[in-house]
Specification:
- Helix content is 79%, strand content 0%.
- The chain is globular, with a radius of gyration of 20 Å.
- The protein is built from 14 helices and no strands.
- It is mostly helical.
Length: 309
């Protein structure tokens, strides 16, 4: 068997995409104070929408059926609508580093949801990993005391966990939609729908809470819309064109590590020894759940094939 060379261009794109996505926690945390959570999310979606205006004409040529529309509505409902409501509120109460650590659970939650809904294989390792990761997340939330960066870590981390559940719902619907539609179109739909959905919330915040048009916060918002939304997804999709999706998904586990490092260097956030141990428990659960089980997968595929005969 000929050993394939590592595609370093794809690897570089993936690592950069994970770094960009991890930086979204820093950007959100920095912008939410002066502008308000819903206003920041609206700004992010609006800026991203402007970047997709050029492609609208090509999108009008696409054909849809009732099933497609149903899944598109579900996708938008999960993300950006519910996902960003939970995440924006989460970052009001927890630190960017801890929120990034909770994000590591998304592939695991997706795997469990896919097993329940799509009848994909659920292994003992997946169950053990899930319990370990959830236990670590609860431990991280309970042992972290309130601080300037995290006024209520338990509430914030719980909201971030709900965001990951919504992310799992999004991932399952996107599996169906990506068979017919491009990632560019799906990302554009999310941006347009998100801008429309969060606009009333931003207006309400402005009229009832008020916010300051802080230059730094505005720059962070533009960064979220252009660099994180377009740049992150663009590099990830570029890499998917060169390597298998299963291999690309492994790189998602870099997000919590990058988030912790960025939170430390940019925001000055720190994690104590116990918090670091709890974070290590979460990552251990994620890694255990994703350990190769090729023989079990092949047996599962054969069983499904026999049932369809």
């Amino acid at each position: 068997m000929v050993k394939k060379d590592i595609d370093w261009l794809a690897v570089t794109a993936l690592v950069t995409a994970m770094l960009v996505w991890a930086s979204s926690f820093i950007a959100l945390k920095s912008a939410i104070g002066p502008l308000g959570p819903m206003s920041v999310i609206f700004g992010r979606m609006f800026v991203a929408s402007l970047c997709f205006v050029y492609f609208i004409k090509s999108f009008t040529k696409l054909k849809f059926n009732k099933d497609d529309i149903k899944y598109i509505v579900l996708m938008v409902f999960f993300e950006p609508c519910l996902y960003f409501i939970f995440e924006a509120k989460a970052l009001q109460y927890t630190s960017a580093g801890q929120a990034g650590m909770i994000t590591s659970m998304m592939p695991l939650i997706t795997a469990v949801a896919a097993g329940i809904i799509l009848k994909e294989l659920i292994t003992k390792r997946l169950i053990v990993g899930a319990l370990l990761a959830v236990g670590g997340a609860v431990w991280l939330s309970l042992v972290t005391s309130s601080s300037e960066n995290a006024s209520n870590p338990l509430l914030g981390n719980t909201l971030e966990f709900f965001a990951m559940v919504c992310g799992a719902g999004y991932a399952i619907t996107i599996r169906h939609l990506s068979e017919k539609f491009s990632a560019l179109f799906l990302t554009a739909i999310q941006s347009f729908a998100g801008a429309i959905f969060f606009f009333p919330f931003a207006v309400w915040e402005y009229n009832n809470i008020g916010f300051t048009f802080d230059l730094d916060a505005m720059i962070w918002t533009v960064y979220l819309g252009v660099v994180v939304t377009l740049g992150g997804y663009g590099m990830f999709n570029f890499a998917l064109g060169r390597i298998e999706a299963s291999k690309a998904a492994v790189y998602i586990n870099l997000i919590p590590i990058f988030a912790l490092l960025l939170a430390f260097f940019v925001l000055g956030e720190k994690l104590g020894f116990i918090e670091l141990v709890a974070s290590a428990v979460i990552l251990s659960g994620v890694f255990i759940s994703q350990m190769p089980t090729e023989r079990l997968k092949q047996a599962h595929i054969r069983r499904k094939a026999r049932k369809q005969q």
